Amino acid sequence: MPRLWAIKLTNELNQLAYDDDKKHKAQYLELQGGLADTIAKATRVPGSVADAPPGSQKFKDWLAGEDGRFYRQWMESLDRHGTKNYGSNTQPLYGYQSLVGLMQHSNAKYDDQFLYELGDDLIAAEKKQPGIYTEWGAGHDGIRADALDGLLGVMSKNPDAATAFFDPAGNGSGSDHRGNDHLKYLLNEREWPQHSTAAGTTVFTMDDPLNRTGLGAALEAAATGREPNSAGAAFGQHSEAQARVMQETITLLDKDGNGDTIPENLKVPLGRALADYTVDTHAILSGTEPSSPGGLSNINANGDESGITNSKHSLLRVMRGVSDAAYGTTPGGEPVLVYDLLYENERRYSAEYLSTARDAPAGQQSNVVGDWDNRARHVAEVYGSMTAIGSDMILDDRDTKIGNLNDQMRYTYHGVGGLFTQIPVVGDPVQRMVDAATYEYSKDVAQAAEDVAQSEDSAATTAGIDGTNALLDAWGDERGVSDSDAHKHAKGEAKQSFITGREDAYSALRTRK
pLDDT, tens digit, for every residue of 428-467? Predict the structure, then answer.
C-alpha cells in the first residue's frame, strides 16, 4: 500500500532510537520530525472544516478529483492499516498509534479537515474494536498507546481545528452535517484506556497517568482560540464557536451536579480557559448576566465578543473542580494553585469594573450614588463566591490532600506574576488599584473556612470580606473619594452582597451538606 511505508518506517526508527542504536537517537527523532512535516504538508485540504467538512459534497468533489488523489489514497490506506497490529499479541502496536506518534514529532500545523477526519476515524476504530488503545506491558518507547488522546494534543497546536472538532453546533462529518458529539463522547462517554499487564491468566490494570492530557490541551485551544498556555488577550474576546465549546464543556462536566469532581489532567488547562472567560464568569457570579443564576442553553452570540451563559451553580462547581490543581510554584518554592489564577483574574477585572463607575460631582458625594452601590455589590458577590471556593477546598474532606496542602500554601499572588500568562494587561489606574489592594486573601479563605467549621449557619457573618474591602478602599483612594458618604455607603452595600455570594456558592458546592 502506498502509505504503509510511513507506519513501518516510524516503527523502525523508534526501534533504532530506543533500542538498537541509542547513541544516534537524536538523529532518528529528527528524521521522524522531517517525515511528520512532510505528511502535514501533503494532507492539506483546500478551504476549512467550516465550509467543506469531511463528508460534505464540496469535500467529496475535491476528493474525487486529481488534486485530492494523494489525500484520498492516504486515508484509504489508513483505513486499512490503522487498525492492523504491527507488534506482537502480548504487546500490540497498531497503525494508528504509530501514525499519531509520528505526527507528534512535527513542528508544522496539521490541516483542520485532516485532523477532523482522522479524529472521527480514531473514535470509530475504538468503538468497533474496544481496547485498541490499551497499553500492554511496557508498551512501545516513543509511541503512546492512546492514539486518540495523542491526536488531540496535536490538534491543540491548531486552535481553529480544535474549535471546529469540539463545536457542538459546528459542521459535523455525518450525512446531515448538523454538529457533532465529540465533546459529549470524550467528556462523558469514553472509557479511557488503561495500562494492562498480564500475569498468567490474570490481567492487572491501572490508570494511564497521561490520560486526558491531549484532551485538556485541545479543549483549552478550542475555547480560547490560542495554543495552550499562551499569553492572554484582552478581557472578553471569544468567537461564537469558542464560546459554544466553553459553555458545552461546563455543562457536560457538571452533569448530575458533579462539576466539582474533574479528572486531574483536565484541571490546569480548563483553569486557564476559565481564566480567559473572566468577563463572563464575573457577570454570572455577580448577577449582571441577565440569565444568571439559572443560565441559558445557548451562548450570548455576538461575533468575536460572544460569551457563555451557564447557570451560576454549574459554573461554581466547575471552578471549584479545577481550583485545587497545582499550577506551579513561586520562586520561593511555595505551591500555587489554579485557584490563584482564577482569583487574580477576577481581582483584576473587578478593579477594572470599578474603575469605569460613573463619576459623581463633589457636591453629590454626600448622597447615595447608585452606580457606586451597584458596582460594589457586584464585585462583593464575586469575591464572596471566590472566598467560598477557596474555603471549600480547605473544608472538603472528599479530597484529603487539600488539608495537607493548606498547611503549607498561601493563597497569594505575590511573587508569581510571571507564572500566570493568562492575565491580560490592564491600564495604569487599574494596576495601581490592584497593587494597592495587597491584602493576602489567604486570610479571607482561612477565616471563612473556620467560620463554617464552627457554625452551621454563617449567613449573618462577614468572615472573609477584608479582601473585598481592600479593593474598594483602593478604588476610593484612586478616585479620591474614600472619605465620602457615598463611598462608605457603597462599602456597606457590598457587605450583604459578599455574604450572599459566599452563601450561594456554599449551597452549590455542598460545603455544609
Answer: 888 898 888 877 777 888 888 888 877 766 677 888 899 9
Global pTM value? 0.93
Cis peptide upstream of residue 293 (ω within 30 degrees of 0) = yes
Query: Cβ–Cβ contacts within 10 Å for residue 58, how many?
Result: 12
Q: Say if CB 497 and CB 377 are below 8 A apart.
A: yes
Residues 6+ apart with CB under 8 A from 162: 152, 155, 156, 218, 219, 221, 222
Residue where the block lists cell 477526519: 117
**Cα–Cα distance measured from residue 262 to residue 259, given in angstroms and rounded to the nearest whole number:** 6
Q: What is the pLDDT of residues 29-46, one digit of tens each?
A: 888 888 889 899 989 999
CA atoms within 13 A on the CB side of 131: 6
Contact, 401 vs 325, CB < 8 A? Answer: no
The pLDDT tens digits of the residues spanning 54-86 come to 888 899 999 999 999 999 999 998 999 999 999
Strand partners for 206: 195
Which among 4, 30, 3 is positioned nearest to 13, based on CA atoms? 30
Pair 328, 313: CB distance under 8 Å: no
Under 8 Å between Cβ of 55 and 177: yes
Rounded alpha-carbon distances, angstroms, from residue 403 to 337, 407, 446, 472: 14, 7, 12, 31
Amino acid in position 129:
Q
Residue 362: CB atoms within 10 A of its CB come to: 10
Residue 22, SS3 per DSSP: helix
